[in-house]
Design the sequence.
């Protein structure tokens, strides 16, 4: 209750700040190259993220069987 009274009297001020930054495709690619030294490292990370998000890959059954 004391906090609400203080807000009404102007003793407390609520402030919000939002920061955004645009990253160009060139900058993003450069950062990814810094993080992953080889194509194999990037592909392994990509596969791991895909499995984490969508679950393990299901093997498709062959139609001929």
Sequence:
């Amino acid at each position: 209750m004391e906090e609400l009274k203080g807000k009404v009297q102007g003793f407390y001020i609520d402030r919000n700040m939002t920061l955004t930054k645009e990253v160009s495709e060139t900058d993003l690619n450069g950062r990814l190259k810094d993080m992953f030294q080889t194509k194999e490292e990037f592909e392994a990370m990509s596969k791991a993220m895909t499995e984490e998000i969508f679950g393990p890959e299901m093997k498709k059954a062959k139609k001929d069987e």
